[in-house]
User: Which sequence fits this backbone?
């Protein structure tokens, strides 16, 4: 009985309110995550009164390569919970803590990223030069500029729309003209997604500095035709969801995309013509890239479809493909994960392209419908264009 | 006894791990915060198994105006915790949930901001035109561009440093030249602080659209001379603290600031000369603005010190002030909160300026050393310069 009362007391006390004035983040005094010499990573979390704490993320072994796993953290006598992973490969890893069953963030780590409406902490790790993590980290190279600008889209009723533009190092100090990669996000995303989640800035800075990609401008528009901009930049502060931030139809994007090209080609010093324009996107943006190449067969010399493609389903579609491949793009590139639900579409698309003798490149990676794959596809695709 | 066992069981069960795969954020299905017709705000949080949940923030009445308060949330039969504030004035409000004594975020609200290493949710509320919230919200106006660019600082050993630049709507499409406001952050901050926490973009867009401020370029540098850029843009991903992100000495900033001006005046279409340059900053940045005006008496025609000032303490200092006020700045503006610890410095500075007959403007607000005040000071200061 005494023991039970003592348990009740301690459990209740443990859950009672401590102090809202406690120093958080800067004052946690903990190093988390810590990358160890063997490239394992240790997480630490100070919450003496929690009953259970787990760490969940893609740095913990899951069922699918690159998918999320979860592991219980162990509480030390000091009340601090810890967990150390296996040695990891170079990569950008995401994780959260699960405290008494509720997801929260690691208060010792300011690196937090938003995907649709969900936040996770992250860290990068590079084990050797040119591994995945290497491309995603910041190195001591010249850096490009990143601008958030607004353009008017007459095709979408004259709305003012927000756009992210990466101009490579040296752009402002030269008179040179540059080719342009148009890079499209997926459902739930916006014009901030590729720069914040896709490491586009770091990948391009690094590939260009290493001489592996041509200096190029990267334009990242908002691909949801009825949203003008990312959360925080609209008149009403909306909460993004997968439903309110996706365009199932590609028609509006096909029709309004020339507004973007016109804006970019008048505002920036760019090389014009098919061979200096690439379009690529992930998931919904992959479907849009496919649709844009079909709707504007003379506009893009390079087309990239990352985990999103629309295989032809009618004779009309086939006629549009014929128009594209009559004067074939220099590169028609498709990447998908072996565990991705959309892979069946890729099989269908490839069978069709093969049957017609249309040239394309296909890249299959491990894993599913995840940013880990899209970062890899961008790293590969960016090295193949404008050459 | 049975009752006690049942309590133990339910408390333990409540704290047990639920599921890491639960939908978070987009799938919470809750509206939080919800702004009610009477301008009170309701917070909702779904955590049936929590023992205590509070909401802490500046929308809850605290001891000091604008300071943080805290209130217990009430759990409904559906397990959802709620709390409704009193009717609120127009403002940008910050809050966090405190769950079983640990700070966490509101998973229904994607609006999250980082101050040094601490994250809090936020929302804006405007009750009437031109109240505080009005200036901080996005309106259907033309929007300026925001760029993250890099400049080389020979005075700081040739380091490549990151800079935020706001160019007003119309800048790119005109040939006009613009005046420049240099806006400096405080300890723990970086070149992202004024745009992310200070609502600089929205304040300037709105003031310019309403004809209350002159169109101007705003340059937000990193004011910590040994940091090249904000977290995430350095070679080593560092965790910012108040200690590793502050420069107690103003000497390096005084010496290296001409590198920034030189860069801005060669890269952008700007009006040159003292009457087209303003410098202002908060806390450490206020001290730096004060020091910059003394070190470069012919450079800035407008000087703003927000909760940071360095009153003269020697005859040498007094001689420097004399040099500044010989050809006095058009505006020497000081703002501080009545509950701010640095207010004594302002009293000392004012007594000195009065004794010499040097002209200045002084603005005292409620509250302490907080962003709420700095946003107000920027809104006031921006309307007074370049006129």
Assistant:
């Amino acid at each position: 009985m005494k023991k039970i009362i003592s348990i009740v007391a301690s459990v209740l006390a443990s859950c009672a309110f401590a102090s809202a004035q406690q120093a958080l983040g800067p004052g946690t005094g903990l190093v988390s995550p810590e990358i160890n010499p063997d490239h394992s990573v240790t997480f630490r979390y100070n919450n003496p009164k929690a009953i259970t704490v787990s760490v969940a993320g893609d740095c913990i072994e899951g069922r699918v390569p690159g998918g999320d796993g979860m592991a219980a953290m162990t509480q030390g006598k000091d009340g601090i919970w810890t967990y150390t992973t296996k040695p990891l490969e170079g990569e950008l890893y995401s994780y959260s803590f699960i405290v008494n069953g509720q997801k929260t963030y690691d208060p010792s780590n300011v690196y937090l990223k938003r995907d649709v409406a969900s936040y996770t902490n992250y860290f990068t790790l590079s084990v050797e030069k040119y591994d995945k993590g290497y491309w995603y980290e910041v190195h001591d190279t010249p850096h490009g500029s990143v601008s958030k600008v607004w353009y008017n889209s007459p095709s979408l009723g004259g709305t003012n729309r927000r756009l992210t533009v990466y101009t490579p190092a040296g752009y402002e100090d030269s008179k040179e003209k540059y080719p342009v990669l148009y890079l499209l996000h997926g459902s739930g995303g916006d014009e901030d997604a590729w720069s914040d989640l896709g490491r586009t800035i770091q990948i391009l800075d690094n590939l260009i500095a290493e001489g592996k990609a041509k200096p190029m401008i990267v334009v990242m528009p908002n691909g949801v035709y009825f949203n003008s901009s990312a959360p925080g930049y609209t008149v009403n502060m909306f909460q993004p969801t997968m439903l309110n931030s996706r365009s199932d139809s590609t028609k509006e994007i096909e029709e309004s995309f020339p507004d973007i090209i016109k804006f970019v080609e008048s505002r920036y010093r760019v090389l014009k013509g098919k061979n200096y324009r690439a379009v690529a996107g992930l998931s919904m943006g992959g479907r849009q890239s496919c649709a844009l190449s079909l709707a504007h067969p003379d506009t893009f010399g390079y087309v990239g479809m990352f985990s999103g493609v629309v295989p032809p389903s009618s004779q009309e579609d086939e006629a549009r493909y014929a128009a594209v491949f009559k004067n074939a793009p220099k590169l028609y590139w498709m990447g998908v994960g072996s565990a991705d639900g959309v892979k069946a579409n890729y099989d269908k698309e490839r069978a069709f392209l093969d049957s017609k003798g249309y040239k394309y490149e296909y890249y299959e990676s491990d894993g599913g419908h995840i940013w880990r794959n899209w970062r890899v596809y961008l790293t590969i695709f960016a090295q193949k264009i404008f050459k």
About this structure: Chain A is about 25% helix and 25% strand. Chain A has a mean pLDDT of 92. The CA atoms of residues 65 and 74 of chain A lie 25 Å apart. Chain A touches chain B through 78 residues (CB under 8 Å).
